[in-house]
Specification:
- By secondary structure, the protein is of the alpha/beta class.
- It folds into two domains: 7-204, 3-Layer(aba) Sandwich (Rossmann fold), CATH 3.40.50.10490; 207-365, Glucose-6-phosphate isomerase like protein, domain 1 (Rossmann fold).
- Helix content is 47%, strand content 16%.
- The protein has helices at 18-24, 26-37, 52-57, 67-84, 93-96, 119-130, 145-149, 168-187, 193-228, 242-257, 294-312, 328-331, 346-365; strands spanning 7-8, 14-15, 38-39, 42-43, 60-65, 87-92, 108-113, 135-139, 152-155, 233-238, 260-265, 283-287, 317-322, 334-338.
- The chain has a five-stranded parallel sheet, with helices on both faces.
- Helix 8 (168-187) packs antiparallel against helix 9.
- The longest helix is centred in the middle third of the chain and has 36 residues, at 193-228.
- It is globular and about 55 Å long.
């Protein structure tokens, strides 16, 4: 049964579960992560000096991670490629060690793990080091195996994360990956210092934006969860960088509510998943838009078309949309609104309503969200 003991957050607010407390700790965790890695507009000052020569010559970045951390890597892939022009591949940690050696010359391997002790991610890093490659570890824990063995390490500001479902470790991983995209863009001459500064200013505003919206998202998630908690399967859809968030939203729901949930690219709906759509399948769609980005607007218009098709098949629609959007609310049954933000910053914001939605669906079912069955916080055996 669900524990009823109240969990207190850093500001003294009472929460009924550790997971919910950690969701509410995300603004502070993101702010601490930025503070750790940004000094006077310098990103990662001194933190990557150990691989300075590799940073000047590498041709590709390969990210190895598992679970939620891999979803961060999928979002990071698009952030880094779009802003810096560096080619990125994302691998499952459990598969990396069994791949043949890289065809590209001198890649850097980035490994991402909440605990720093994830067995298959450690194995992936060790394989990379054996191949003579430089590695960058992103970890939520500093005194950890993966950090000690890495060529360079970047630690999040999430602090201890006690609930099994990852929440604040995920958004702080995204924050570091966004900083990495800006760092590489600046280092490779793709972005002037003035433009970099403007991107950083938008990032610095995120903690306050998230803090101000959390209570509203929580209230809506409780209402939407009550409407859909009896569903046995869910489909999550997102385009571009938002596909990674659709994957993560589905994983959170799967982990703690035990409902089957899949995350798909929105454009793939017609290539199979459409057969599942009926009145019993809630479809969760990320339909945010950066109206200053023509590519984002195009993806948004196509997402609306897809939502109309789902609605024509009587599929219940839950959507995450940008504040002020009047079109989405004419199509979707339930809408989470998030503040406007640049396209590549939206993932850090839009995942939080989905964390809360998963939480309330699971609580309504009566499950222990902090300790889901068959799962552990750190997977220390392969």
């Amino acid at each position: 049964m669900t524990p009823t003991k109240q969990k207190k957050s850093a500001n003294g607010q009472q929460h009924s579960h550790i997971m919910l407390r950690e969701v509410y700790e995300q603004p502070e965790a993101i702010a601490k992560t930025i503070q750790k890695h940004l000094k006077d507009d310098m990103i990662f000052p001194g933190e990557l000096d150990a691989i300075e020569s590799a940073l000047l010559t590498f041709e590709k970045l390969i990210i190895a991670a598992s679970g939620t951390s891999r979803h961060a890597g999928l979002a990071g892939e698009i952030m880094i490629e779009d802003l810096s022009g560096v080619a990125v591949d994302v691998e499952y940690s459990s598969e990396y060690s069994y791949r043949s050696t890289h065809t590209t010359i001198d890649p850097i391997i980035m490994v991402i793990t909440q605990s720093g002790e994830t067995a298959d991610t450690i194995a992936a890093q060790r394989e990379a080091l054996t191949r003579g490659l430089k590695t960058i570890a992103i970890s939520n824990v500093s005194p950890a195996t993966i950090v000690r063995e890495a060529s360079a390490a970047l630690i999040t500001g999430a602090g201890p994360e006690l609930a099994v479902p990852a929440t604040k470790s995920f958004t702080t991983q995204l924050t570091i990956l966004y900083l990495m995209a800006l760092f590489l863009a600046r280092k490779r001459g793709r972005m002037t210092s003035e433009v970099t500064r403007s991107y950083l200013q938008r990032l610095l505003r995120l903690p306050d934006v998230i803090h101000d919206n959390l209570p509203t998202w929580d209230d809506r998630a409780e209402k939407f969860g009550a409407a859909h908690f009896k569903a046995e399967k869910f489909l999550y859809l997102g385009r571009g960088v938002h596909y990674a968030i659709a994957r993560e939203g589905a994983l959170k729901l799967k982990e703690i509510s035990y409902a089957h949930a899949e995350g798909y690219p929105s454009g793939e709906l017609k290539h199979g998943p459409n057969a599942l759509v009926d009145e019993k399948l809630p479809v969760v769609v990320i339909a945010t838009c950066d109206h200053n980005d023509p590519d984002s607007v195009l993806r948004y218009r196509r997402t609306l078309d897809m939502m109309r098709e789902v609605k024509s098949r009587r599929g219940p629609l839950v959507s995450v949309a940008t504040e002020g959007d009047k079109e989405v609310e004419t199509i979707a049954d339930h809408v989470f609104y998030v503040p406007a933000a640049p396209e590549l910053l939206l993932p850090i914001i839009e995942v939080i309503p989905l964390q809360l939605f998963a939480y309330h669906v699971a609580v309504k079912k009566g499950y222990d969200v902090d300790h889901p069955r068959n799962l552990v916080k750190a997977v220390v055996t392969e």
